[in-house]
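Morning!

This is the sequence you dropped in the shared folder:
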Amino acid sequence: MPVIRLSPDLFKRLEDYVLGFDTPQNVIERILDYLDNNNLKDEINQPGPEINRNMSQPRGRVVLGKKKARDPQKETRLKLSVGTALNWGKPNLMGSSVLTFPGSEKRVLCKYSSFSGEQRRWFWGVSKRYWVDWSENDHLAFLLQNEDLNSYSYLLLTSEEASKLFTMCSESNGEKKINLRQYSADGKLHLQEWQEFDAESRITSIDAQIDTQ
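The structure's back. Tokens below.
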């Protein structure tokens, strides 16, 4: 693969656009996707006279959007809704992310992501304290805010599938970074780190009757 060298200043600018760290390549890809999806390529290729590339003038930036404010109480209700939908017994939530079920050794690490409309993707971080001691009783559930911003779905991975995914993910500050996005090649949703996995067919809507209000 081609090797690109970045100056420290440019690398720091890329870090400004990290929403759920991927890799420098993924951050660049996200910016290019935004430019393509909003027909800004020609505009970027024709800089205005106010841009001075040789002076320390403020440079134009593509605004990709800010992180949305978290609602921990709503996320808790949604995660319990995922546990209910699994029909493994009445779920309990340990801490902020782990679902347990009475009389069962099964556990579900449930991670939430809002929908990022500008990049048309979801992203999650899984802390090392979870994945380093992953067991055969552990499952991984990705909770998604749907594109309509009013409904929710989840993607459940078995213990073996989650373990395989973790080996494919980049690690930053002890977290495995995982992305789900729509690919133009087939118009389907794929895990960026494991594109062969048929994620779209495994995504399940949370029952409308489950109270998440």
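Headline: Residues 139 and 158 are 5 Å apart (CA to CA).

More detail when I'm at my desk.
O.
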